[in-house]
């Protein structure tokens, strides 16, 4: 399993893309997608909603269970991936590409997210 180096990772198994113009993309990791099994339903936060780092903001339902989706950062949701709502299997088949979940404009007053992991740190975390 390979975690893209340019991403940052949460201990809840979400990834965050580099911030461009104040906006970052959020998805779940390949590790989480594999642990969930076949994803059959995705509930994402509404565009315009405010999400809070470490708090649930949606759900992923698989053939095995229902899991909360956590926001890795605080901010306003600017876009959701309708493709993944229409075809939840994208979460499993392309978690770092077409299976992204939503985009968020970071709340700059919250500061830089300090508890996000590098790819190497996340790999060490998931191998425990």
From TrEMBL:
Its cofactor is (R)-lipoate. Residues 23-105 form the Lipoyl-binding domain. InterPro entries: 2-oxoA_DH_lipoyl-BS, Biotin_lipoyl, GCV_H, GCV_H/Fam206, GCV_H_sub, Single_hybrid_motif. Gene3D superfamilies: 2.40.50.100. Keywords: Lipoyl. It comes from the Bacteria. The keyword Repeat does not apply. Binds 1 lipoyl cofactor covalently. The modification N6-lipoyllysine is found at residue 64. CDD domains: GCS_H. The keyword Transcription does not apply. Pfam families: GCV_H (PF01597). The glycine cleavage system catalyzes the degradation of glycine. The H protein shuttles the methylamine group of glycine from the P protein to the T protein. Belongs to the GcvH family. The glycine cleavage system is composed of four proteins: P, T, L and H. This is Glycine cleavage system H protein. The gene is gcvH.
